[in-house]
Design brief:
This protein starts with 7 loop residues before the first helix and ends with a helix. It has a four-stranded antiparallel beta sheet. With 140 residues, it is of the alpha+beta class. β1 and β2 form a beta hairpin.
């Protein structure tokens, strides 16, 4: 997959949109009394980490990217705002708590996410369609 190339003007526009989305997301969480959560980068549209690209009921996960350590709702958000290529999580690091559940706001191990398809804390089912993108995030 080729990285998305943006002009300087487009990059500035995306940064403004990203900042607005992060501010809105933080405000929504603050109003619910939630604190000390990971900052969700990219373009989240609600407090459960849905984004401008994926908005179904089960799209409630954000992934911490191995390349930068930031959480994004999806690879498209990362491609449009991170400014660098994605680095996959190696199998040797699948025990890392790099998956964020937007429902209960807790993290879980990559291995649990890949094997169970649901949050190990609150049992919320994740979108099974996300499995089509595992090869982008993880060395599977």
């Amino acid at each position: 997959m080729q990285p998305l190339r943006l002009s300087t003007k487009s990059t500035k526009s995306f940064r403004l949109i990203e900042n607005a989305c992060q501010t809105r997301s933080a405000a929504l969480l603050h109003n619910k009394g939630v604190s000390s959560l990971p900052n969700i980068h990219g373009f989240p549209i609600d407090e459960e980490t849905r984004c401008i690209h994926y908005q179904q009921e089960m799209d409630v996960v954000a992934i911490q990217f191995a390349c930068c350590g930031h959480f994004y709702p999806c690879y498209k958000c990362h491609a449009e705002s991170a400014g660098h290529e994605i680095k996959k999580w190696p199998k040797s690091e699948f025990s890392t708590n790099a998956i964020y559940c937007g429902k209960c706001r807790k993290t879980l191990a990559i291995s649990d996410y890949l094997e169970k398809g649901e949050c190990t804390h609150c049992r919320t089912r994740f979108n099974p369609g996300c499995a089509r993108h595992y090869h982008i995030y993880f060395d599977v």
